[in-house]
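Good morning,

Attaching, inline, the backbone tokens for the sequence recovery test we're adding to the shared suite. The designed sequence is right after.
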């Protein structure tokens, strides 16, 4: 048996525990730490999918999206009054990101049918916040990091005066592979475990979930 045909006996990395994690607002993290999390996989979008008015790849450049994210996160500015998400550390290593802001901070959500299908919602209600994206750094994926990030997003939104927090996760099915990029909105099970409840099911693979404070 050659090295190429030998079975893979590598054990999966163990799930991360709460004691291993520190989760902070992005403005309390450094820009270099956040850049390490995004790497090249998420580096093109820069978490601007719901921010860029128009088609993201046509109506913005890489440099513009990077500048937008830097301004939105206010990384390295602990006294900033606002930031656009949370950063998770495993020990001293930056490992994960979740985007969470008032729903009105995402212009593209206004034109997407997912949040509004079958619901009479005020699109200008800035008391409703939204979780729109997770990014997990290579080397930390598959270790359950989205679960504590979703839970931390609840406390973050509530402390800043949110009346409710929404998410737009995907439904994962056994035996059906979903690429890492597709699942940037999170999986339904992650939000169920955090206490969100399903409020609508606008597409076959997408649900709207919400927690009211």
């Amino acid at each position: 048996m050659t090295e190429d045909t030998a079975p893979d006996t590598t054990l999966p990395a163990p799930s991360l525990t709460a004691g291993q994690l520190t989760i902070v607002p992005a403005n309390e993290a450094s820009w270099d730490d956040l850049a390490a999390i995004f790497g090249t996989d998420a580096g093109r979008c820069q978490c601007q999918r719901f921010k860029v008015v128009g088609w993201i790849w046509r109506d913005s450049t890489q440099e513009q999206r990077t500048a937008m994210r830097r301004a939105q996160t206010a990384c390295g500015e602990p006294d900033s009054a606002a930031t656009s998400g949370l950063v998770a550390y495993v020990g001293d290593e930056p490992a994960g990101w979740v985007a969470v802001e008032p729903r009105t901070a995402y212009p593209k959500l206004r034109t997407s049918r997912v949040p509004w299908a079958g619901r009479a919602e005020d699109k200008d209600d800035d008391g409703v916040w939204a979780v729109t994206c997770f990014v997990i750094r290579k080397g930390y994926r598959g270790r359950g990091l989205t679960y504590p990030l979703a839970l931390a997003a609840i406390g973050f939104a509530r402390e800043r005066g949110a009346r409710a927090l929404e998410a737009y996760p995907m439904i994962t099915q056994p035996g059906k592979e979903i690429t890492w990029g597709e699942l940037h909105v999170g999986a339904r099970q992650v939000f169920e475990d955090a206490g969100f409840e399903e409020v609508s099911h606008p597409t076959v693979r997408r649900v709207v979930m919400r927690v009211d404070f």
